[in-house]
Amino acid sequence: MAPFGMPLAKLCVCRNPRGSSMRSITCFMFLLGASMACGILAEQPLLAALGGSADSIESDRRMLSAVQGKVTQGADYTVSEITYGWTNVREYVSPQGIVFAIAWTGNRSPDLTTLLGSYANEYQQALKATPRQPGVRQRAIKTDDVVVERWGQVRNLHGRAYAPSLIPPGVTTDEIR
Fold it and tell me: What CA–CA distance (Å, rounded) separates 120 from 143?
């Protein structure tokens, strides 16, 4: 079904100047493009931001129509997983209820501007100041307040972001994966 409850075939019937009906490939392509654009926009993540409250994870999951994955309770932190599209995001939450790290795996990287929250500007500035190295598939941006690491290849991307000052005592960065 197309928007407004009309079958897609009915929406693609266009009239030529003589008034007769004909199926128009142009009309169909326009609708197909519009549908794809809506799908792309709908996949933009709005996840709990680094340094933010854990309360937003559930509302973000509902907004994305994402599937709640497992929630793993550890002694020093909780990991909440959600999956949308082909991307799995793991949010690490301290006992105080603060998101201290985020990791992802999927066919595309999530929107880091959203994921990093208040750390996004600092990350963007450091990213601009870091020269690209041709052929290197791993990239790490480290500032005083945030670390963002990305690696992988097309359709198999991985990454993690964390705020070193927010990591609970006894937790190592090797646990963020």
Answer: 11
Long-range contacts of 19-23 (CB under 8 A, 24+ apart): none
Residue 73, strand partner residues: 78
Where do the structural domains in the chain lie, given as residue ranges?
A: 3-42, 56-175
The Cβ-side half-sphere exposure at 74, using a 13 Å CA radius, reads: 13
Over residues 109-125, the pLDDT tens digits come to 887 887 888 999 999 99
Q: Which of left, alpha, beta for 117 (phi over 0: left; psi -120 to 50: alpha)?
A: left
In sequence order, the 6+-apart residues with CB closer than 8 A to the CB of 81 are 68, 69, 70, 71, 72, 88, 89, 90, 91
**Whole-number pLDDT of residue 99:** 93
Cα gap 94→79, rounded to integer Å: 9
Q: How far is CA 5 from CA 41, 45, 152, in A?
A: 21, 27, 42
23 and 57 Cβ atoms separated by less than 8 Å: no
